[in-house]
Design goal:
Rossmann fold; ten-stranded mixed sheet; Glyco_trans_35; 822 residues; binds ligand 26W; pyridoxal phosphate; alpha/beta; six-stranded parallel sheet; globular; glycogen phosphorylase activity; 48% helix
């Protein structure tokens, strides 16, 4: 007989024993008094045990082989729950479910028990998480570096239709997935001044004399790939006081003063900034950025020099750093500082190493999201870095002058320092200059980046610019979230598509298969029924599962135009009021998403949706033909439930504003059709699935700029379009706000007099195409064909494809196979 180890064995009996063992020894409970959370923890530890073996083999292999590694630096990692995903990647999902059930436990309830690490806002943070999954799956040695926020993105509640924010206490029940490594902490300096001195070789050097110091303690989480043993690390830094007591102050009787430093230091990693696409310029945010960047770079250098004994001069051959937007862009100056001041390297060589190490991904063109820091604030916090940035800038601008003599305008635009008014450090310019690769996240976005925001840089260094269209992991967003569809697909084409998503193309040959189409439709219906039950429980609203599930789920932002969707709803409502017997295809409009706490307009749009919902859902004239549902607290866990249930995916941003979008991919992969503009990755999705399987509307990005250049006047559209006017007037009249005509004034006013995101210009086109959607849905058979073709043709949008492109064209890293444990 073979006896399996309780910590690594995969037989059902072993799994059961391991769960009970962990319940006893880790949770310190016997079954009779164990809570659901105790069982969740016992189960999570059982899974973690099985990861750890692979993790240590991976780490040993990296130490031995010393491969080139990628370090993905990101202020956000929106990981979502780990348990289900790890079971999928370990290949023991079904077996574990059986083991758990044989113990008399509810497997689904245990999965549901996990408090998700919501350490990100939206697209950018979730992209980082998908990329970690793909890097591990493709056996790419990599580390994700970020911040272990004690509080992640706030939980959203709705009171009287308004968003209310609640602290996300995700660590309250403990986190079984992480291991603290206090022995590998680093110190990070802040403030103070610099001093020049002459070193023993007679060279002029600089010393930074800070006025405070914080410690970064790493917490490591294993990231296992799918069907491989490669297990990489997500290393998140937590801030701690260097000394928890200031003994001098303590002895002088100032107990509170002594503990103050501890409180102050630990504030650093306390909470995630909940804004996306809107900078705030807060000092604590810059402190967070510098804190995690400094810890991460020190960590890489220690691995390189101390653990591997390699010379610092070849640092860039062994490490490449991917900057996830400009949030970690201070890395350019920090690596320079470490090389110059701590390793005594000369400027030119330090710059060569730095520029050969860094690569920068831009995620947004919105001017209000481009990070810049007031020079005064920057210099008081990071005096040495400001000196280094001035030096980088001075040398660079000399080159620009040589290349483009007498072009002062260009110098002003390209300078890292914005001197047009108050002085600012422009982080995008710093990141661009300091990197060997600069990329956008969809074809159109990269094109606009080169044309617009980084135009001068692209002209000077065209070879550094490239596109890497985003992707999403099919493990989480198909296999885990849509088991029924996964089973059907696998029964037809086998399961290789999970690693090689292009194989979904084989589904095309089943489009003509009546039986297959019927199964496809049944599955969608069953999933819609689940969501309908959830809506019934959550919102007390009864929805018709035969209606179109028309879903817009994403952060709230004016450029994403949730309010355009609302104008469509009101237009349908007005038509029904005018003609109660009108024959329209029944629809359920579902919204989900959070607004930045300080973004009043976004919060007002949430209030508008809930107000319209109240009126429409209870109006007898509507007779259940339209329903409006706002689902609160949209997060990864919930998103996994939503994507599979959609018939229609709303991707309706103003063309040129959404860098890529990734929700668009998740919906379409799960068989939703898209109504969308020619924006971000929508363009590429439409190219792949075929124009006939995509509902296109609206202005193109270039038309948008043209109209704006000519002087856009939304009022003209309002006057000329009676349905648009009726919809706006309906809001304005107080009809949705119990007669309060003031409530939605800011929103309506902004639309009528500015309409910066061109809702009015796109309104008619949107309404017309929505009418086509309604008609198309009536032909269920044809709709099903389109749905199947959407899934079948989404192969390109696996994050595996994105990562393969980064590996080949940017990072130049070889995969390294890890031997499975025996
Ligand atoms: C400093 C404030 C701030 C915070 C976050 C500014 C900007 C951000 C992010 C760049 C916002 C973000 O998540 N952008 C999204 O990134 C996705 C992944 O590339 C894209 O798919 C989305 O289109 C883009 O909006």
């Amino acid at each position: 007989i073979r006896i399996e180890d309780d910590r690594t064995g995969l037989e059902i009996e072993t799994l059961k024993r391991a769960i009970l063992d962990n319940l006893f020894y880790i949770q310190g409970k016997f079954p009779e008094i164990a809570t659901l959370n105790d069982y969740y923890m016992a189960l999570a530890y059982t899974v973690r045990d099985r990861l750890i073996h692979r993790w240590l083999i991976s780490s040993q292999t990296y130490t031995k082989v010393q491969p080139r590694e990628v370090c993905y630096l990101s202020a956000e990692f929106l990981m979502g729950p780990h348990l289900g995903n790890n079971l999928i990647n370990l290949g023991i999902y079904d077996r574990m479910r059986q083991a758990v059930q044989e113990l008399g436990l509810n497997f689904e309830a245990l999965l549901e028990q996990e408090e998700e690490p919501g350490l990100g806002n939206g697209g950018l943070g979730r992209l980082a998480a998908c990329y970690l999954d793909s890097m591990a799956t493709l056996d790419i040695p990599s580390v994700g570096y970020g911040i272990r926020y004690e509080f992640g993105i706030f939980d959203q509640d709705i009171h009287d239709g308004w968003q209310v924010e609640i602290t996300d206490k995700w660590l309250k029940n403990g986190n079984p997935w992480e291991i603290a490594r206090p022995e590998w902490a680093f110190e990070v300096k802040f403030g103070g001044r610099t001093e020049r001195y002459t070193d023993e070789k007679g060279r002029s050097r600089v010393k930074w004399i800070p006025d405070r110091m914080v410690q970064g303690v790493p917490y490591d989480t294993p990231i296992l790939g799918y069907e491989t043993s490669s297990t990489n690390t997500l290393r998140l830094w937590s801030a701690q006081a260097v000394e928890s007591f200031d003994f001098r102050a303590f002895n002088a009787g100032d107990y509170y003063g002594a503990v103050g430093n501890k409180v102050f230091s630990e504030n650093l990693s306390k909470v995630l900034y909940p804004n996306d696409e809107q900078i705030q310029g807060k000092q604590l945010r810059l402190e967070q950025q510098y804190f995690f960047v400094s810890c991460s770079l020190q960590d890489m250098i220690r691995t390189h020099c101390d653990r591997r004994g390699l010379p610092i001069s070849i640092f860039h051959e062994k490490f490449t750093v991917q900057l996830n937007d400009t949030h970690p862009a201070i890395a350019v100056a920090e690596l320079m500082r470490l090389l110059l001041d701590e390793h005594g390297i000369e400027w030119d060589q330090a710059w060569h190493i730095t520029q050969s190490t860094m690569a920068y991904t831009n995620h947004t063109l919105l001017p209000e999201a481009l990070e810049r820091w007031a020079v005064g604030l920057f210099g008081s916090l990071l005096p040495r870095h400001l000196e280094i940035i001035y030096e980088i800038n001075g040398r660079f601008l000399n080159e620009v002058r040589l290349r483009y003599p007498k072009d002062d305008e260009r110098i002003r635009r390209m300078s890292i320092i914005d001197e047009s008014g108050d002085r600012y450090v422009r982080m995008a310019n710093l990141a661009t200059l300091g990197s060997y690769s600069i990329n956008g996240v969809a074809e159109l976005h990269t094109q606009l980046l080169k044309q617009d925001v980084l135009h001068d840089f692209a002209e000077m260094y065209p070879e550094r610019f490239n596109n890497k269209t985003n992707g999403v992991t099919p493990r989480r967003f198909m296999v885990l979230s849509n088991p029924r569809l996964t089973k059907l697909i696998t029964s037809k084409i086998g399961d290789h598509w999970i690693r090689n998503l292009q194989e979904l193309r084989q589904l095309e040959s089943f489009v003509e298969d009546l039986e297959f189409r019927s199964e496809w439709r049944q599955i969608k219906l069953a999933i819609k029924r689940d969501l309908a039950n959830y809506i019934q429980e959550q919102n007390g609203i009864e929805v018709n599962v035969d209606s179109i599930f028309d879903i817009q789920a994403k952060r709230f932002h004016e450029y994403k135009r949730q309010h355009l969707n609302v104008l469509h709803i009101i237009t349908l409502y007005n038509r029904l009021k005018a003609n109660p017997n009108l024959d329209i295809t029944p629809r359920t409009f579902i919204f989900g998403g959070k607004a930045a706490p300080g973004y009043q307009m976004a919060k007002l749009i949430i209030k508008l949706i809930n107000s319209v919902a109240d009126v429409v859902n209870s109006d007898p004239d509507v007779r259940d033909r339209i329903k409006v549902v706002f689902l609160k607290d949209y997060n990864v866990k919930f998103a996994q439930r939503v994507y599979p249930a959609a018939d229609l995916s709303e991707q309706i941003s103003t063309a040129g504003k959404e860098a890529s979008g990734t929700g668009n991919m998740k919906f379409s992969m799960n068989g939703a059709l898209t109504i969308g503009t020619l924006d971000g990755a929508n363009i590429e999705i439409r190219e792949e699935v075929g124009a006939e399987n995509f509902f296109l509307f609206g202005l193109t990005a270039s038309k948008v700029s043209q109209i704006k250049a000519k002087g856009y006047d939304p009022m003209q559209y309002y006057i000329a379009n009676s349905e648009l006017k009726a919809a706006i007037d309906r809001i304005n009249s107080g009809f949705f706000s119990k007669g309060d005509t003031a409530l939605f004034k800011p929103l309506v006013g902004s639309l009528m007099y500015q309409d910066p995101y061109l809702l009015f210009a796109d309104y008619q086109s949107y309404i017309d195409v929505q009418t086509q959607v309604g008609e198309a849905y009536r032909d269920q058979d044809h709709w099903t064909r389109m749905s199947i073709l959407n899934t079948a043709r989404m192969g390109k949008f696996s994050s595996d494809r994105s990562i393969r492109e980064y590996v080949k064209e940017v990072w130049k890293i070889d995969p390294l196979k890890i031997c499975p444990p025996n």
